[in-house]
Structures are given as C-alpha cells and as structure tokens.
Amino acid sequence: MNFTGAHILSIEQFQREDVERIFAVADRMAPYGRRQRVTRVLEGAILGNMFFEASTRTRVSFGSAFNLLGGEVRETAGFESSALVKGESLRDTARVLSGFSDVICMRHPQAGSVAEFASASRVPVLNGGDGSNEHPTQALLDLYTIAKELAQRQRSIDGLRIAMIGDLRYGRTVHSLSRLLSLYKNIHVLLISPPELAMPEQYVEQLRSTGAQVTISDQLLANINHVDIVYSTRIQEERFPSREEADLYRGKFRLNQAIYTQHCEPNTVIMHPLPRDSRSAANELDIDLDDNPNLAIFRQTDNGLLVRMALFALVLDVVDQVDSCAQAVRWHSARQL
Amino acid sequence: MNFTGAHILSIEQFQREDVERIFAVADRMAPYGRRQRVTRVLEGAILGNMFFEASTRTRVSFGSAFNLLGGEVRETAGFESSALVKGESLRDTARVLSGFSDVICMRHPQAGSVAEFASASRVPVLNGGDGSNEHPTQALLDLYTIAKELAQRQRSIDGLRIAMIGDLRYGRTVHSLSRLLSLYKNIHVLLISPPELAMPEQYVEQLRSTGAQVTISDQLLANINHVDIVYSTRIQEERFPSREEADLYRGKFRLNQAIYTQHCEPNTVIMHPLPRDSRSAANELDIDLDDNPNLAIFRQTDNGLLVRMALFALVLDVVDQVDSCAQAVRWHSARQL
Amino acid sequence: MNFTGAHILSIEQFQREDVERIFAVADRMAPYGRRQRVTRVLEGAILGNMFFEASTRTRVSFGSAFNLLGGEVRETAGFESSALVKGESLRDTARVLSGFSDVICMRHPQAGSVAEFASASRVPVLNGGDGSNEHPTQALLDLYTIAKELAQRQRSIDGLRIAMIGDLRYGRTVHSLSRLLSLYKNIHVLLISPPELAMPEQYVEQLRSTGAQVTISDQLLANINHVDIVYSTRIQEERFPSREEADLYRGKFRLNQAIYTQHCEPNTVIMHPLPRDSRSAANELDIDLDDNPNLAIFRQTDNGLLVRMALFALVLDVVDQVDSCAQAVRWHSARQL
C-alpha cells in the first residue's frame, strides 16, 4: 500500500510487505525511542489526539510518539459534553477537527465510528480503537514484539508456534493478531480457553485457510510446552455468573513462574496486552514472573511507541528525513527501551 | 485600539478599523494555516488554555492556533474539582494562573467571569466564551468568513444583505454578529424566527440606529430570495413544550437543497455556527446541502483558526516577525483550508 | 545528594546543602520565568504529567515549568476509567508509563502511592502530592519564598521567626515546612491553632530536637507581633460539627489589614498555601490585604514555577546547559515574576 496520506483503520489494509515496511521503519525509530538522539522532523506539525473514550496509556503513547518526532499534540481525553452530545454527526465533527491538525488519532466506543470519521476527514486518521471492532496499532505492536523477540533467537515469524490463552471470544487483541499471523507461513496457533470463551469460528477459519495449523483446547498445561510465545489475556469476571465461578475458570488458565519452569521450554516468551489484573489471587499472569527475562509485556508497550512513530512517519512521508533532522540529547537519560 | 498586551473580552471593544486590522492579519496567517510553511515566532511562549467548561472544538482551535505560531499550550478541559470549587475567587485564580503562561484563553459558564478574571490577570486574556454573555472570536470568525466569501464575488461587507434564521432570542452568536455588522454601511438584516424566539429589541435598535435596514418576519421562504448570506442557527428543542411542537417549528425554518434551489439566488452563502443537529428529521440544515459549494460552514471553522492566530499575534505583538521566523514544511500535508 | 536521575519523593531526602543547591538553581531560572529570555535546553524531552487526582494549578505549574525549559508535556488530568481502575498495580502502570517519557510528575490520592510507583519507574519521578503524605515541591517553594523575602531584608533563614496559623493538624503543607525548617539554626516557630487542630507531636518534637524554639498557643493576636512571617492556612469547615461553629473558630484565626496594622511589625510577610476561601465572611486571609506589599501569596506560586524548573534541571542534569541554549524573547511580555 501507499502509506502517504493514508488512513490507518484496520489490519485488513495490510499485506505482508506493508507490515514488514512498518517494522523496518519502527527499527529506525529505536535510537529516538531510546533517547540516543532526538529529531525535529515534524516541527510545526499538529496531532489531533481525539480520545472520545478514556484510555490513559494508549492516548499518551500516541502523543509521546508524535512528540518524539518533534510535533505538537492537541487532545481530548474523554467524551466531555461535546458537540457529539448535541447531536452532531461524526462526519461534521471530522470536517471541523481535521481543519485543526495535520493527522488525527481517534478512539471512540462505537464500532465503525473511526472509519466513518475518516471518510470525512481532510487529514489522515489513525484508529486508536473503535469499540469491539479494531485496534490496529495494538496488533502491530504485538507482532512487532514477536518479531523482535524471535530475531534474538535467530528466528523469523514464519514457523512461529504461539499459544493464545484466556478470553479468546471477546479479546479484540487476539482476533487482530490472528489475522496478522495469517500473512505468515507455517504458523501453529494453539487456542486455549474455556469453551464458552473460544475464539470465534471466522478467525479460526481464516488461519486455517491460509495454511496455519490450529489447535483448540481448554487445557493449559498440555499445550504450552512446545511454543515460542505464550500470549495470555484477561478473563473478565463479568462474563461469569459469579466471582467464584470466574476465579475457578481463571485459575485454570493462569501462568506463574512454577508453571512456566515446569511446563515451558526455557526461552518461551510471555506476552499480554495489559493491563493485567493484580487484585485477584487468580490473576492470569503472576507477578512472580516479573524477574523472568522472557516476560516481554513491558517491551510490548515500549515497542508500541516505535510502531506508532513509524506509522506517523509513513503517513506523513518523513521517513527519509528523520535522521537528517536529528540532534544530540542534552539531558541525562534514564530511559532504556 | 492598541492590541499589544490587551485583553480581548468583548466585540464592544472594536471599531471598524480594529476589525479590519484583525482580518488583515488573519489573511497573512493563511499560508501557515494551509501548511504552506510553518513559523516558530512564538517559540518558548505558553498559552494557558483554561476551559472551565467543556468545549472540544473551541478549545482545540485556540490551542492549535497557538501551536501554529510555534508556542506551547498548557490547558484545563473542564471544571475538575479545582480551587474554584474550594471557594477561591476568580481574581485569586487569575493571579495564580497568569504566573504560569504568557497569554490566557478562558471559557467559563458564568457571564462576566472572564472580564473579572482578566481584571486580575498579569497577562492578556482572550474570552473563549462566558456563558450567555460573549464569545467574541466566534463573531469575528463569522464576519471574517462573510468578508472572504463576498470578496470572491468582488463585494465588500458594506451593502451586505443577510438573513438570520432560527433561534434569534437565545443565540449568542447572532447577537454578537449583529453588533459587529453595526460597524458597516448599508446593511440589510432579515431576522427570521418564530415570534417567541425573536431577536431581542436592543440588538434590533442598535442595528437601526447605525443605519442598517432591519426586516423582521416569521416566514422563511419569502425572505431568503434576495440575500447574500443565509445564517442558520439551531432551534433548541428544550425551548418548546414538546418535541413534536419543536419539530413543527423547526420544520418551518429549515433549509435543504430543494428549498435553496427554488428560493435562493445562485451564489447565496450558507452559514451556521455549528454544531448542527443531525438526529432529527427536522434538522435546520440538511446534509443534502453538503455538496453545495456555497455551504461555508466548514470554512467558518477553518477561518476561526486564522482569526485566533491573528489575535494571538496582535496581542503578543509579533505580527511583523511571523514571516521572518518561517520554515519550510517537511511533511506531506493533506490539509487544505 | 546526587540529583542526577534521582526521584524527588519526600523532603526527608534533603540535607541543608541540597535545599541550598535547589534554591541556587531556582535563582538561575528567574530570567526564564520572567521571560527575559527563553531556553530550549530540554528540546525533545517529554514530561509525563500524571495527575491521577485533579489539581489544575499544581498540574499546570509543573507542565509550564517543563515547557519553560523547552520540553514537551503529555499528561493525564484525573482518574479517568484508566487501567488502575481495571485492577492494574501501580508498579505495572509505572513500568508502562515510564516508557513514554523522560521524567514523570505524579499526583495520586493514596499516601505512599508515588513512592511505590517510583520504585518501578525507569525514569525519575517527582512527587506532585500523594494524599495526606507528602507534597515536597510545595514545602520547597514555601521555604524558597521565605528565603527570598528575607533576603530583601538582608536576612537569612537562620534566626527566622515564623507563626503558623490555622489547621495545623491536617495541613500537609505546614508539616512539611516545619520539617524543612529543622535544617536551619535558631528558628522560632509559633504554632497557633484551636487545640483540636494542633500540630501533631512528632513535628513539634523534630523541631525541638534540632534546636528550634516552639511556642504553642490558641491565641492569634498575642503571637504575631514579633515574627518575620505569618503563614496562614485554611480551617476546613468539614472538621467541625456545624458551619456556625467553624465560622466561630475561623474568626479567631483570621488575618485582615486592620489586625495586621495593629499587631504585626511593619515588614511582616504574609504567606498562605492557597487556595484561600473567599466565600465566607470569616475567611482566613481577607482580600483587604491584597494591596499590602508584604502579601507574598502570589509570589509563592510564581516561585513554585522556579523551584519546579530547578528540580527538572537538576534531575535531568542540564543546569549548566540552560544558559547556553538561551534565545531572545520575540513577543511582548506582560509577565512579571
């Protein structure tokens, strides 16, 4: 695809070569993310960071990514009693707001809203999450993390063995990731969930129709011993009749250091879309894993910054100017990506 | 008036020459608004964008205008449980906040609040709307839009024929615009509303006392056939005993493409302060007008950015330095004002 | 202490030489605070201004301080329905958010939360207030103001006589200030409050153990006649059974111009942490003091900006580069600190 001026609305837009292009640009962003140098390439540009649904981390990640390229951020952090409340159409809102910025990132609780907004916007729109529909930058950062973790093991995504664990029915993240994986070869996906929370058939079919091997099970321990990645997700209490029943289920799909040591291959990477619930004793990813060097959950969010920088650089067509606008970092940087 | 360091609180401050000065500076801002170049003239300056009442578009417009001049924006986007809630006076708040920025834009639900705040502020204050009282930048952007639209027809504001339609009683926008029009010659204003929502007498008298011709009517179709501008406003449901009665009224003051074609002169410009309500079948400005090139409603909000840039440049006295601090735009710009 | 890369969590961290270092750097920030010049030393750096509790003025003060050094600010202005609500631990939140910025300022309603957050953060964290526990920059700006006011009288902090008035039991501000005063010599602190709102014993003991003279009283007039500073605080209505009883108490600890003229030495400095309540007739600091040149309450908030700039410059180790990155101010500056 031609990224210049494009909207980024759905992972369905991407061919494998597009994904690889994004990842190659993300790699080039790493020195800026790590604060080895700063770039002013987007000096004077404005991001409209329009979050019509609260989300601190995704909002801040998009905004920081734009700042890291030298641009300014104007934003809204929740629904407010805005014009949308007064009955304004999304298309009108888009025409107005797209006059105020050079690119827009939008999150909105309603599925399809971001695409509708984009259809009337005069500047490129990046989907920051539209309800149960899409959150394409999350899927990209997940796959980018997989690629980087595997690269350290001299492996590529082709041939990946990944176990997805937990609520695979409602988890937007695993749906999008499974679609992206369909672009690669010799993938083995193990879908481990309670039957009630199984991956919807359409995603399973798409995987199989593109040649992936799919294993479906409700047994955790038997299925995590020969995989490269375990991708854990939250089992949400509200899906179950009672908290007790939810805890019972969660307990069966829970990962901790003892289980990891006993059942996983030594270098198995642990991922999670975050946030992970730390209130329950039956939380899906125990904090005793925090010292495990293969726990990649915070590398995921760090990588998200690089992927979002890459998308901004591609859509605004400044990839080849980033380095020529670079400066040295003057301050003490504690930051390590 | 001398703009340097001045508060911009009310359209009553302006003589015709002041309005023309603002518009001349707004014209000079257009290349920056259109992203043909960027300027860093306000590098290091801080706008305190203090919205003590939620308003996404006006807040973002002020913030973007300041960013477009190279400045930084600190802001508040709603009442919060701020010091004002703890009983702090507006004057104390002003003394504190004016220590944190170089210029302040303030919106507050209470009429007169911004002037009171300004009286204690140590930096210039721009009124971003104080309840039912004033919203001077909206009136200026409306008149600036009228001037630009007429200029394309080789016309000036003098001699303007404008129909104001809808809720003329509570509409802050049409009150302020009518006051600004009093500064011009040979104006004909046609006030078209239900009798219950008629323009208050004081505004009618001011227009007449400055030589404007005023026509008052509750008939739409007979009064839009010889005007340069139709300025439509929202008839708010809550003014009427029932929704049905409101729809009945709204239907009589509604504009769509069929009515436009049959009753308006070919080049009649259509304006609206936005947002327009798109939920009701009886909405005041039908979306079938969206392909009409004379629909100026989104040019209004685009022009708002230029007018706000002009006010910042005038108040901070950098008009003559804007161009000398200009740089080329590095990124792909989809933006067209 | 070594400030480079350090967390600033508590005034307990500071020795006298540390406080003096902060104040010396704050002095060097004054030309930038006064807009005599601007500096771009932190160009490209990002502050994560994470206010998980609403506080307009402290949030804007931190953000403006960072902008004044040339950096960018990403922020959150309230609790939102954020990940913390979904049960994420503070340590997880810290690991994620510290990947998005170079330094974090955090406010949170829960005592101890900021230190817990800092323990997992990969970048320096400044405590912007953690519930009833600490608000170290407020204590520093108070003491910095005292130092500057006394310096105008050719005095140093050693030998200070200060009356603290009002709610000394719950007032976080006076607790922290009294601890800082323990670092100085020959201090006389007069603690004036209703017995129910007396300073907790631990703070009194710390003062005495470090050689300070402490006077405890519930009489205002007899105790403000030989002091350098009167530090007034708000007596909160909610501490008392009824509003009438609260007003009765407040009236006894109230300062106005008549009392000042009759009971204070001519140059006595008046301080208050703000906001002051201006709704009640029995407000603690009457507005008739606003013309009194010794009223330092707005100099306190102005000084807060300088102290916060100093802390950022120290923690990010750019103190010696601030001046070499300076530029002239292009705009008309109405600002006087």
UniProtKB/TrEMBL annotation, chains A, B, C:
Its EC number is 2.1.3.2. It holds the Pfam family OTCace_N. Transmembrane segments: none annotated. One of its GO terms (cellular component) is cytosol. The keyword Transferase applies. Keywords: Pyrimidine biosynthesis, Transferase. Residues 158-314 form the Aspartate/ornithine carbamoyltransferase Asp/Orn-binding domain. The keyword Isomerase does not apply. It comes from the Bacteria. It is an enzyme of class 2 (transferase). Residues 7-147 form the Aspartate/ornithine carbamoyltransferase carbamoyl-P binding domain. Catalyzes the condensation of carbamoyl phosphate and aspartate to form carbamoyl aspartate and inorganic phosphate, the committed step in the de novo pyrimidine nucleotide biosynthesis pathway. Belongs to the aspartate/ornithine carbamoyltransferase superfamily. ATCase family. PANTHER family: ASPARTATE CARBAMOYLTRANSFERASE (PTHR45753:SF6), ORNITHINE CARBAMOYLTRANSFERASE, MITOCHONDRIAL (PTHR45753). This is Aspartate carbamoyltransferase. It comes from Gammaproteobacteria bacterium LSUCC0057.
